[in-house]
Design goal:
The complex is a heterodimer. Chain A is an alpha+beta fold. Helix content of chain A is about 55%, strand content about 20%. The chains are: A alpha+beta, B alpha/beta. Bound molecules: adenosine-5'-triphosphate and magnesium ion. Magnesium ion binds next to α1 of chain B.
């Protein structure tokens, strides 16, 4: 019956309880929605990092990442790629040749990173093909096509179908060059990426630098489920102990750090909101205890023990806070859902956002984990807020409490 | 057997600026089945005495035995349980939990005692019937008159099957009809079920109903007599 008493006590002073419930709801709404907003932003950044840039896992020759020289290649890259393709958790694999080169147009030049790919395999791993704004992604039959980023096109002042010369060292170290025609221009969310990465066909790179067919510098692996990251990594490592196998988290530590930092700062943000709310709740509950001094005195006189009195006040406080919390979470969820469909366009406010690899359209994450975490935090805050009023109630002496005039 | 025995009890309040000797050496025995009024002018120590008899407060000196247990040395948490199982209380006001119905108020005390649901249901309706409130069982206190609330308080006090009931001015807020009503119920319970009642009062009509009248002044008993109750 203590539960019933506590629950009904919440509604004895309807206005006062409603005020505190609404303020808790507003605070929680603000917290949950901001959390969902940032989580959405970070999720997108991670998605971009995986699907456009790093994939889930990459394999390289031991020295390549430290010193991306073309001489650190894997001679049997296509064989390894086939082995990896056979792993159940793997969705797609693409092997690449990577060569640093100088791209020159009629006007000017720029350092670039050539990705020598098989377009059909690459399409299954990265989504660069879907980012092509002009032209196509290796669909024309023309000779020596190249797909470049919009940023680079601007820099070199070239257009679709312009010619560029790629100058690089072949495997013996002699300088060689080839003429390529711009077949497609892409744009990702990361303009730095767009400025440096260009795509040409695998066989064209082979011809330029003189390597055998099965060689490769990088094998990019896309998984069905990002949670299987470490399992698959270990599996490959055990078959190829001599190779360097890295997850996107290791390849892009900045991105994975953003995720951790975001969660950490959101916990702090929520804690600050809740701390402010706790004061309001404590105040309300103190009022509730003080105006009920005689009743509490009577309860203790007739035999309600301290544990029960304490429980009653704690439950009442928790009911008060949890109601506000639940309302706040529900509203935040609905608002998040709406914006999750529509997106929030930040481009009018934030410039240069895209340089960092973030999309200007943010889709807040409808993440049940956030709601659960916040709900637990509200519960804890409610319990914390109840302690002082409950202790106040316990300090009452029944004989005196019954005689205080209010 | 006596339900209460107190021996040379004094109570001095010294937490206030001035020391107040509210009880100055009272020795008293209450037997099972009594229907006793404690009377005296305002400030004479009636409430203080009842608080001591009910274990709501501790004496400064002297010994208090209730149902054979010396309560002087009980810790306050033990006292709460002791009261729950041994003593019924009816106060002048604030007897009931406003958010519970009449029946729930009566059942609540039994729940604190750990009684099962069926027993609670049965006993609460029996008791509310016997105080004439069978019809209003599901009403909350605020929907009932002062007299009806005090009758629920009596039912609540009885619910725990205490050895005796202490009532500090139970009729002080009631009109004369409700006062008579409540006293008739108390008298009947005393007569038929041998419930021991000890109550304080200012009201002569209430005093007249008592079988024993203890008069105190300045914290001392100045008279203690048995009387034939008048049925006015
Ligand atoms: N908590 C307290 N602290 C200090 N003095 C107190 C306290 N309670 C009662 N007193 C004093 O003790 C004396 C007896 O008070 P008590 O309340 O027992 O009288 P009473 O007979 O019940 O009076 P009334 O008929 O007005 O209810 C009074 O002088 C009162 O002022
Ligand atoms: Mg009094």
């Amino acid at each position: 019956m203590i539960w019933a008493i506590s629950w009904r006590n919440v509604w004895r002073n309807k206005l006062r309880s409603a005020v505190i419930i609404i303020s808790v709801a507003i605070g929680i709404f603000a917290g949950v929605f901001s959390w969902a907003f940032y989580a959405g932003m970070v999720d997108q950044r991670i998605q971009t990092a995986i699907i456009t840039e790093a994939s889930n896992i990459q394999i390289h020759e031991k020295n390549f990442l430290e010193n991306p020289d073309q001489k650190f290649y894997m001679a049997n890259a296509s064989g390894i790629a086939n082995d990896v393709r056979a792993i159940e958790e793997v969705r797609a694999v693409s092997e690449r040749l990577i060569v640093n080169a100088m791209a020159t147009s009629a006007e000017t030049g720029s350092g670039v990173k050539i990705m020598g790919i098989d377009p059909e395999k690459e399409k299954n791993v990265t989504n660069i093909y879907s980012k092509v704004m002009e032209g196509s992604y290796f669909e024309d039959e023309g000779k020596t096509p190249v797909v470049i980023g919009e940023k680079l096109a601007e820099k070199l002042s070239i257009k679709l179908r312009s010619r560029i010369v790629l100058t690089l060292q072949n495997m013996d170290g002699t300088i060689t060059s080839g003429l390529f025609r711009v077949e497609g221009i892409y744009r990702t969310a990361n303009s730095v990426y767009d400025e440096t990465n260009i795509f040409i066909k695998h066989e064209d790179v082979i011809n330029l630098i003189g390597l055998n067919e099965s060689a490769g510098h990088e094998i990019a692996i896309l998984l069905h489920d990002n949670n299987k990251l470490d399992d698959v990594c270990n599996l490959i490592q055990s078959s190829y102990p001599e190779l360097d196998i890295k997850t996107w988290k290791e390849l892009m530590p900045d991105v994975s750090l953003v995720e951790e930092t975001m969660n950490f700062s959101m916990y702090i943000f929520m804690a600050i909101i809740l701390a402010a709310l706790v004061f309001g709740i404590v105040n309300t509950m103190l009022m509730a205890v003080l105006e009920r001094v005689k009743e509490l005195g009577m309860l203790m006189a007739v035999g309600m023990n301290k544990i029960r009195v304490f429980t009653m006040i704690v439950l009442e406080t928790v009911f008060l806070s949890i109601q506000g919390g639940v309302i706040g979470i529900i509203i935040a969820y609905l608002v998040t859902l709406i914006f999750n469909r529509r997106g929030i366009d930040l481009s009018p406010w934030i410039e240069g956002f895209e340089k960092l690899g973030y999309e200007a359209m943010v889709y807040p994450a409808t993440n049940a984990g956030i709601a659960v975490r916040v709900a637990i935090m509200v519960l804890i805050a409610g319990i914390v807020a109840s302690v002082y009023p409950a202790i106040k109630a316990l300090q009452l002496k029944p004989a005196e409490a019954l005689h205080i005039d209010i | 057997m006596s339900v209460i025995e107190i021996h040379k009890v004094t109570k001095i309040y010294d937490d206030a600026e001035v020391k107040v000797s509210a009880i100055n050496g009272i020795t008293l025995t209450i037997e099972e089945g009594e229907f006793t009024a404690i009377v005296g002018p305002s400030g004479s120590g009636k409430t203080t005495l009842l608080n001591l008899l009910g274990g709501l407060d501790k004496p400064t000196t002297g010994e208090i035995q209730i149902n054979g247990t010396k309560i002087n040395d009980l810790r306050s948490s033990q006292m709460i349980d002791f009261r729950l199982f041994n003593i019924g209380f009816v106060f002048q006001a604030y007897n009931l939990i406003p958010v519970l119905s009449a029946r729930e108020n009566v059942e609540f005390i039994m729940e604190l005692q750990g009684k099962g649901k069926t027993e609670r249901r049965k006993r609460s309706s029996d008791l509310l019937k016997s105080v004439g409130l069978a019809e209003r069982m599901n009403s909350r206190p605020s929907k009932l008159s002062g007299g009806q609330q005090q009758r629920i308080a009596v039912a609540r006090a009885l619910a725990s099957k205490p050895r005796f009931i202490l009532a500090d001015e139970p009729t002080a807020n009631l009109d004369s009809v409700s006062t008579k009503n409540l006293l008739d119920i108390m008298e009947r319970l005393n007569h038929e079920e041998k419930i021991t009642f000890i109550f304080s009062t200012h009201d002569q009509r209430v005093v007249n109903k008592a079988h024993r009248v203890i008069t105190i002044e300045d914290g001392k008993i100045i008279s203690d007599r048995n009387q034939e109750p008048q049925s006015n």
